[in-house]
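**Protein of interest**
===
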Amino acid sequence: MKTIEERMAAAIKQRRLEVGLSQEAMASLAGVHRTYASSIERGKVTISVDVAERIAKSLDISLSELCKRAEAITRTSR
């Protein structure tokens, strides 16, 4: 089973691609460094709720919807 970091990473990357943003653009909109955004998308770091919310806003999605997408990834990866 994937870790929560991996599931959130996949949900974030999927949504970023849906809205057509580069990692750099997403990072800028969310107020995080580009390399940190890369680490987030690779599931290498645990992000705070604050950062998760800023990323969700940068992707024009609610934090709850982003979490739902991460949960869906869990269900399909079993």
User: Anything to note?
Assistant: Residues 4-76 form a domain with the 434 Repressor (Amino-terminal Domain) fold (CATH 1.10.260.40).
